[in-house]
Design a protein that fits this description.
single chain; alpha+beta; nine-stranded mixed β-sheet; 5 helices; 9 strands
Length: 166
């Protein structure tokens, strides 16, 4: 057999193997899952780039709300006293309501609250679930305060832009 015929047969064999891997015998379920994972990753990346208050992590529906969207929800008033005893009343949406909208996954046990300057505070989810007066209060369209009466750290966290459920 000539070298040319061997080369042609090898090329045909390689081509056949490549085509069989790409043909109808490939696993459509695996392909669909791969595309779904890619679409979900792209959607989360788009969400994280958006301005507003984000809730991500162990949730069914990662979400971002603007201040106007938060203000359009039913808000409650929560009075907080500062260290000198002066009282400030904050208006916001209960955190437990926002969490009900995103669908917290069963394995989630805490919320990391991230401020615009990158500082983080972790709060146990069981404490948030028991707090009807813990709120997210819009301070602008992209900046929010989190009011946590009776939870450690107690008080008001300003400049919060994201919750990450873990």
């Amino acid at each position: 057999m000539s070298l040319r015929k061997v080369t042609v047969k090898c090329l045909l064999l390689v081509l056949t193997l490549v085509m069989s891997a790409c043909g109808p015998d490939s696993n459509p379920e695996a392909d669909a899952i791969g595309l779904q994972d890619m679409a979900k990753t792209q959607a989360i990346a788009t969400l994280l780039a958006a301005d507003g208050f984000k809730v991500v992590g162990l949730v069914d529906t990662p979400t971002v709300w603007t201040g106007d969207q938060i203000r359009a929800m039913e808000m409650i008033e929560v009075p907080i006293k500062n260290s000198s005893g002066a009282e400030t009343v904050y208006q916001g949406v209960p955190i437990i309501f926002l969490l009900s909208l995103v669908g917290v996954q069963d394995q989630s046990s805490s919320i990391t609250m991230i401020s615009e300057n990158g500082s983080e505070t972790e709060v146990m989810l069981v404490d948030i679930n028991a707090c009807i007066n813990c709120i997210v209060a819009p301070e602008g369209n992209e900046i929010f305060s989190v009011v946590l009466p009776g939870i450690q750290p107690e008080g008001v966290m300003t400049g919060v832009v994201q919750f990450v459920l873990k």
